[in-house]
Amino acid sequence: MEQIVRYALKIADKSVLTPLIYDGNYINFLLKYCLNKIIFKLYVIIVDIDLPILAKNKQKFADNGITVVVGDFDFIQTCNDKWLTYNFFIKNKFLIPLPHF
Predict the structure, then answer these.
(1) Which residues have C-beta within 8 Å of that of residue 61, sequence separation ≥ 6?
(2) Tens digit of each residue's pLDDT (9 = 90 or more) over 71-99
(3) 28: Cβ–Cβ under 8 A, 6 or more apart, which residues?
(4) Residue 65 and residue 77: Cα distance in Å, rounded?
């Protein structure tokens, strides 16, 4: 995994090492980085583990003119749980295969 990360950092146009996702400084670091690098339009998340944290904090970015492309926290929680997702599909009448218990 470390080799993949090093390679990705090497070929990226820009890179930065952030605090870990659950570090109390993660959101403030990202926001400050976006503001310092003049990333005012859009921030797209590509790592699933970031979604709940950024969903909870997307207003903080919006207040600074940055749109974080992330769903609402409750919807992300549903998508991260197979049983909640199944119930969501049933409730909203999606055609899905029946589970085999």
Answers:
(1) 31, 34, 43, 54, 67, 68
(2) 899 999 999 999 999 999 999 999 988 77
(3) none
(4) 26
